[in-house]
Amino acid sequence: MPKKKKKKPTLSPTIKALMIILLLPVTVTVYTITIITWQGIRELPIVNQLTVSAKQFPAKGDDLPEEYIPIYQQAAEAYGIPWTLLAAHHRIETRFSTMETLVSPVGAEGHMQFMPCTFVGWSYPGCGGLGKGNIPDEDKTDPAVIEKYGGYGVDANGDGKADPYDLEDAVFSAANYLSKNGAAEGELEQAIFMYNRSDDYVQDILYYYRLYEERWKEKKKEEQ
């Protein structure tokens, strides 16, 4: 005769309820540990950098202040580079001059974040390292001093000073720098990399450059 199959033991509702009660603290503990671990991972520099980099990109190019466009265009025309490239640098460097301070932790200054030695010239006495130098304000903004030491600072508005804290001077100086480092010949990536020697920086600038190029073309079509 065939053997009767043994019925699998079933748990009573009371036992099931007890097991749920007992497992609940374990589940909560595991969940809590997971959240804490993820928060810790998010604080790691590489993860934090990726998060910040992703958040800084808008969906459109509507963040570009229209009142600055004439300055970008004039500087770009003077040095033979795309004005949208200047807009991209201004966006990345100081978020269109809306940062709380226009001095970086390493000493870069002004609207377009020039290191003093780059602005005045690396042959200026005492320039070295990252380029902060020890340059008196009167020399830092003196066009004659800048010309003497081979700097990139420009007196764009003709007031007798090349001032990194003056928007026109800063944008024209950035155009001067980018132009002489390859942008005038179409070597945009090279010029951007020379501005800040970081591959991530190059990609960030190119992102905004292309964004503003596209947005400007769309705007021109809408106006026609």
Automatic annotation (TrEMBL):
InterPro entries: Lysozyme-like_dom_sf, MltB-like, SLT_2. Keywords: Membrane, Transmembrane, Transmembrane helix. Signal peptide: none annotated. Residues 148-187 form the Transglycosylase SLT domain. It holds the Pfam family SLT_2. The chain crosses the membrane at residues 20-41. This is Lytic transglycosylase domain-containing protein. It comes from Chungangia koreensis.
